[in-house]
Amino acid sequence: MTAEFVGQKSTVGNEGNGDRCLPTDVKKMGMFLQDPSLAKLRDNYDFPIEVDYLRGTGSSRVAIQDNDESGAEVFPGLNWATEPDLSFEHFESQGLIDNPQFHQVNTFAVINRALDFVEEEIGHPLVWKDGSALVVRPHAFQGMNAYYDPMSPSLNFGFFTTPFRRAPVWTCLSHDIVTHELGHAILDTFRPLYIFSPDVDTPALHESFSDLMAMFSALQHKSVVKHLYRETYGNMRDASLITRLGEEFGQGIFGAGVPFLRSALEGPVYSKAPKQPHSRSTVWTAAIYDILERLVREQYPTGFAKTLEGFGNFSEALVNATRWIKGMLLRALHYTPPNALTMPMLARLIYEADARVFPQDSKFRDIAKEIFQQRELWNENIDLTVSDSTVGQAFQGHTGSDATTLSRIIMRHADALRIPAGTVRLISPRLITTTRQIDKVDSGNVCGIKTITEHYLEFAYEQTEYVDSFGMLVPVVVYGGGTLTMDENWNAGLIATYPELIKADPPAEEGVKQAWARNREQFDALHGSSITKTLAARNEHRTLKDQPVVPGCPFVLQKMETGAYRLMRRNCNLHDRFNGTALTKHGIVQR
After folding, report:
1. N or C, which terminus of the chain has less Cβ within 10 Å?
2. For the chain, domain boundaries
3. pLDDT by 10-residue block (mean), the chain, 591 residues
């Protein structure tokens, strides 16, 4: 399968849809830029009717279904195609906070605006993993929760009453919560096998990516940047609305004394990271925020005066820094292995992706590397080299080839692609071509636009491990895989695989065996006893929303058609965040 699209130059810090070339036929759709606790932060999203359609409460990309989890209708919706006014101002005059029709419009607008900036950076439209519009339920259940369901791709938002507020808390009105859950959907679309990953870092990166989605999405809007400046006067080490997640939600749970759920200002170094995904995610989120803060400070090392001119300088610096770090992070997604990912691997890929795009200017990636090193996220020993530099040429001319043809070529080059002998089943190989337009940078200064084309070969394969469950060996399927990155001339530049190979590993098959052995040893140390007990209950049906067999075990079992089992990560949701975090002076971080 292939995707060939031309991306657009990204924009940050502009109201509505920024300064992109908009279709003339648009419909304004109102949205909060934070939540009702900061009601002055609002905007209208310009939905481009010329390039998409509105029908009922949905479009080609997002389908708002105001049903509960059982499918029963909760609130009726308007027909957006014929409704004359969906703007924030219209709903403000008609009723806003407790108006379910506004909830539907708000959720839709927030999701579409966030999708725009992601697609601008990755260079092609997102196609959800089931090929249809993403289902969104603004009022899925009554409860202090929200979650993304990867098995039936959907975003599900709860609502609840609280003694700390007169009005209910509607999680679908929280910009942070909506974009956080959308982040899970986006990463799951990019890498659907991540929900089966046994690595402790992968679910933590899922959480961190979603937190960063919320942060970057908010910073698209000038009014948010103005609010940030009034809070901090440019000192990004101070707590602010962008370092906090879900102010209104936090107030509803804890009261006004602790008005948010997490802070991007705090996180341990990698060697001290806990294994609970929400807690562990703070390692990566804090590192990316450190890079953002450093890029802002590099542009104005003397700080920002508390004046209108000071705000102008700060806004420009933050716009630039957000665009740079967002671009570095999102571009690296194409380089990641399709089956699992560690934080040190992602740190290396961010650096390598930036080097391929900006080979003559290393300023931004050198700053990122320095911060990764400070937070113990940098591992120079991860081996990204391709043993056969000509392997990319084998795929030239096959951008439209089917999975059978790609699989045949992949197996011919199994050694160079680090696929172990004995592998008989590849999982959804893909050959993707992306052409994107990005800033051209020289010595840290933007000096125009450049176009870059790259090709990515993604492949995964099954590996069977046998686990002793009280004297019985039970087959458990896990996934290996990798991504080969090639330039526009099909020259292979690097390969990122999981399990990760290190430079000291022996070549070819022996190196792959050692990598698998390391992974198994690490997994057994973390989850061995709980997996043994979970396997003993393997005939008990459990969904991803059910409590685990063993308290604290993040996995449920799924029986495959072959009779083997595979481990699946339980649905991640806001209640899990409560269990994995604790209060500090900046908010809630780890336990």
Report:
1. C
2. 391-566
3. 30 41 76 91 95 96 96 96 96 92 98 93 88 97 91 93 76 94 96 95 95 92 93 90 66 48 77 91 94 95 90 94 91 95 98 91 95 98 95 95 96 96 91 82 64 94 91 93 97 97 93 94 91 89 84 88 90 58 39 32
